[in-house]
Write a structure and sequence with these properties.
The chain is an alpha+beta fold. It folds into three domains: 3-81, Winged helix-like DNA-binding domain superfamily/Winged helix DNA-binding domain (Arc Repressor Mutant, subunit A, Orthogonal Bundle), CATH 1.10.10; 88-153 and 271-301, Periplasmic binding protein-like II (D-Maltodextrin-Binding Protein, domain 2, 3-Layer(aba) Sandwich); 162-265, D-Maltodextrin-Binding Protein, domain 2 (3-Layer(aba) Sandwich), CATH 3.40.190.290. It contains nine helices and 16 strands. It has helices at 3-15, 18-24, 29-43, 59-81, 99-116, 168-174, 227-235, 249-254, 283-301; strands spanning 48-50, 55-57, 91-97, 120-126, 140-144, 153-160, 162-166, 190-193, 196-197, 200-205, 214-217, 223-224, 241-244, 258-259, 264-265, 269-275. The strands form five sheets. It has a five-stranded mixed beta sheet with strand order 4-3-5-16-6, with helices on one face. Strands 13-7-14 form a three-stranded antiparallel beta sheet. It has a three-stranded mixed beta sheet with strand order 9-8-12, with helices on one face. Helix 5 links the parallel strand 3 and strand 4. The longest helix has 23 residues, at 59-81.
């Protein structure tokens, strides 16, 4: 099969529009439509249901999409591996990472990988806003959640969930909420990103819990656009936070923080290593991906 056809199929499924997917790949809508029909003929399956108002992926298309993503990723990894001469990793990685995760977990790991590969250099940018790869001069970014731009390449590093946390001192002074509604009586530390205040906390039952899902609009006397500040306020006993378990893993393990309402958490969220295009997937990027996958798995297991 033509890999461009497969890439077009993935873009169209993500965007929900043949015209917009065609624009991303510098194709005319007619050429894109012909490519998708060619792919359907090869597969002997209908991938999309088309109408004048809507494009919808079929059940067969959903099944094929999963394998298609894997195939394109494997092909890209193979292409990148050809540039790895003699197993030697060198050059510069310009990496953007969330403020909290970067300062408190990644820094030590980056020191470790650089000691293993002395000719590798890393330029680290910390911040919680989504990176503009061109303006921010970064090669790759570590980010939570799904990608808004399907043209970018994403490698999953870990899956975690947001959990409710507080310090033992806060619990001693104000008590622990007994249910989700009781959060309305507590100071809930809030994070703001790109002008959007995350004051609506969607809580779902943890595995094995009989609690029901709830959506709570909480209040706070403290708001910040830096996720690490939320962590620091939580440790200082200023309130309850709702943050990724991965971000708070060290503090939860050593008892600096404790889970509040442990039977409730968020839906699973993915942590991805994101590249602007396939051309940026170098042997150094693949090395970093594999190294971080192992480290995050160990961190969550502890």
């Amino acid at each position: 099969m033509n890999t461009d056809d497969l890439q077009l199929f993935v873009h169209t499924a993500d965007i929900g529009s043949i015209t917009r997917a065609a624009q991303q790949m510098d194709l005319t809508p007619a050429a894109a439509s012909a490519a998708l029909k060619r792919l359907e003929k090869q597969l002997q399956a209908q991938l999309f249901i088309r109408s004048t108002r809507q494009l919808r992926i079929t059940e067969e298309g959903e099944r094929f999409l999963m394998y298609c993503r894997k195939a394109l990723t494997v092909l890209e990894e193979g292409r990148a591996s050809l540039g790895n001469s003699g197993g030697k990793i060198a050059g510069e990685l310009r990496l953007s990472a969330p403020s909290d995760l970067g300062r408190n977990i990644l820094l030590g790991w980056l020191d470790e990988i650089m000691s293993l590969h002395p000719e590798l250099s890393i330029s680290l940018t910390l911040g919680d806003s989504l990176s503009d790869f061109y303006l921010d001069r970064v090669d790759l970014a570590i980010r939570y959640g799904n990608l808004a731009d399907s043209s970018r390449i994403a490698f999953k590093l870990a899956t975690t969930e947001r959990v409710l946390c507080a310090s033992p001192d806060y619990i001693a002074r104000f008590g622990a909420p007994e249910n989700a509604q009781a959060l309305l009586q507590h100071n809930c530390l809030l994070f703001q990103l790109s002008g959007r205040l995350n004051d609506i906390w969607e809580l779902v039952p943890a595995k094995g819990s009989e609690h029901k899902a709830e959506k709570i609009r909480v209040t706070s006397n403290r708001t910040t656009n830096d996720a690490d500040v939320v962590r620091r306020w939580t440790i200082a006993g200023k309130g309850i936070s709702f943050k990724a378990r991965l971000d708070m893993s060290n503090e939860l393990r050593n008892g600096t923080l404790v889970r509040v309402l442990p039977e409730l958490q968020s839906h699973p969220i993915e942590l991805n290593l994101v590249c602007p295009s396939r051309r940026q997937v170098t042997p150094a990027v693949l090395l970093l991906r594999d190294f971080l996958r192992q480290k995050f798995a160990q961190q969550l297991a502890q």
